Amino acid sequence: MTPNFLPSLVNCPFDDPALYVDFLHERRALLFDLGDIAALPHRKILRISHVFISHTHVDHFIGFDHLVRLSLGRALRTTLFGPPGFVEQVGHRLAGYTWNLVSNYPYDFVVTAVEVRPDGSGRSADFRCRDAFRPGDETPRLFPGGLLLDEETFRVRCEFLDHRIPSMAYALEEKNHVSIMKNRLDEMGLVTGPWLAELKRAVLRGEPDDLPVRASAVEGERTIPLGELRERALLVVPGQKIAYVADTAPTEANDRRIVSLAAGADYLFIESPFPEVDAERAAERSHLTARRAGRLAREAGVARVEPFHFSPRYQDREEMLREEIRTAFRGE
Ligand SMILES: [Zn+2]
Ligand SMILES: [Zn+2]
């Protein structure tokens, strides 16, 4: 199966956290945490539709200005999710500049700040460039079960962790993944075309088997029941899952939440700032050790674990941290 989501860390693991998730064949991406993103090419930054911030410690949010600056004068809307207090914080960041020239910009750029609370309530507000980024009206929001975004092909959920302040962990889950078997289409005398994208969407929506589908065939158009197409020409498999866990204290309550959020993920990106020998220092600073991160990845049954957020004090011992998480992940 060709993956639809391509995740990669923007920076080396000693630098600021930011996980870029590119969408295959779509000019779109998601970003998890917004540390320094100067290393991202501009065209990739402009593809970001939604940003999911774990918490607003400076190393997770300093890239905001860069994102805003690049987006000015463009017909874009960027939606950012964050923990309690987030709407105000976004407003303060934007209020730190003078915006008297924005009325000349050809297009309006809109920042939508969405604040999520641990009880599943929240609120959002728009900040429009043409309005000098003054806060617009607030809208109350509800996120049952931590569900933040539910689109046709994927959803994003969050889990609140304790980092002496709330820190949000995220899971991006593709709904079922539908592949077209080209050789089967040929056998059925069908040809590729835009109808296939509509067919995929119908399958993902869970439409009934007897739904008539207008298929492009060699002889022209033919109507075939959805169930027959699914059986003969499609491969439907569970979609990809990517989990992102940033700063979090080494507590059992956090462990349980992380394991449940990341269960069965294809990728778990998880902070691993300290080695186990410095577990005390890690606990004082409300961070995980590499060994704990590896054990959590193992308990969650993920396919791959990618550590990040290494403390700069181990700059010359990157391999030690990587080896520690690998060993714990394998259960050795
Ligand atoms: Zn951090
Ligand atoms: Zn932090």
Structure, briefly:
The chain is of the alpha/beta class and 332 residues long. It has 10 helices and 18 strands.
Could you walk me through the main structural features you see in this protein, from its secondary elements to its overall organization?
This protein is α/β, with parallel strands linked by helices and about 325 residues long. The protein has ten helices and 18 strands. The protein has helices at about 40-45, 65-70, 85-95, 180-185, 195-205, 225-235, 250-260, 280-285, 290-300, 320-330, and strands at about 5-10, 20-25, 30, 50, 75-80, 110-115, 120-130, 135-140, 145-150, 155-160, 165-175, 175-180, 210-215, 220-225, 235, 240-245, 265-270, 305-310. A hairpin with a 4-residue loop joins β6 (about 110-115) and β7. α7 crosses α9 and α9 (about 290-300) runs parallel beside α10 (about 320-330). The longest helix is centred in the C-terminal third of the chain and has 13 residues, at about 320-330. It is globular. Bound molecules: zinc ion (2 copies).
The total of beta strands comes to 18
Give the fraction of residues assigned to helices.
Answer: 25-40%
CA distance, first residue to last residue: 31 Å
Strand content: 25-35%
Mean pLDDT: 95
> What structural class do the secondary elements suggest?
alpha/beta
User: How would you write the strand order of the largest sheet?
Assistant: 1-2-3-4-5-6-7-8
Order of helices and strands: EEEHEHEHEEEEEEEHHEEHEEHEHHEH
Shape: globular
Quaternary assembly? single chain
Bound molecules: zinc ion
Rounded to the nearest angstrom, the radius of gyration is: 22 Å
Query: Largest sheet at a glance?
Result: 8 strands, mixed
Q: What is the tally of helical segments?
A: 10
